[in-house]
Design a protein that fits this description.
The chain has helices at residues 2-24, 38-43, 51-59, 63-70, 77-93, 95-102, 107-123, 134-137, 139-146. The chain has 149 residues and is an all-alpha fold. The chain has two domains: 1-30; 31-146, no CATH class.
């Protein structure tokens, strides 16, 4: 019985240590209640910018950070998670500030943003975004994304 308790203690210690180490290595991130997934954080490491730093600066209204955060490149399941983060960011900084940051985006970049946002709508746990459409939540952003310019 003592051996089982000792083994359980060792396992708990290992789990706690790994959790702390991962957070210390910047794999945990909570910026103003937005928690990007481990997948986003690890995949974004291939870029020259830190996802959490970009998120934090974007939420402060930094236009370059908003632009940078928007254009982190993700595919598959990570694009859904990135879309959820972008929805929260646009909601918090406002459409006008967000549009100021992305105003010079190409048609291809606009399609990417549209894809991220729609993917995020499909998986967001925020009731504000569930069962919604971009044109209803962010009409100005939607108009920009659909514009031919």
């Amino acid at each position: 019985m003592k051996i089982v308790i000792a083994i359980i203690g060792v396992i708990i210690t290992i789990v706690i240590t790994l959790t702390v180490f991962n957070c210390w290595k910047n794999y945990c991130c909570n910026v103003e209640g937005i928690e990007p997934s481990y997948l986003l954080l690890t995949l974004s490491n291939r870029d020259d910018y830190d996802y959490c730093d970009s998120l934090d600066q974007a939420l402060q209204g930094d236009l370059l950070a908003l632009k940078r955060l928007t254009m982190f490149h993700f595919e598959g399941g990570s694009s859904y998670e990135h879309g959820i983060v972008l929805l929260e960011v646009i909601d918090r900084v406002g459409e006008n500030k967000y549009l100021e940051a992305v105003k010079d985006f190409s048609k291809k970049e606009k399609k990417t943003i549209d894809r991220y946002l729609n993917a995020g709508l499909n998986f967001s746990q925020n009731p504000k975004f569930q069962s919604q459409r971009i044109d209803l939540i962010f009409p100005q952003v939607n108009a920009f994304l659909k514009s031919k310019e």
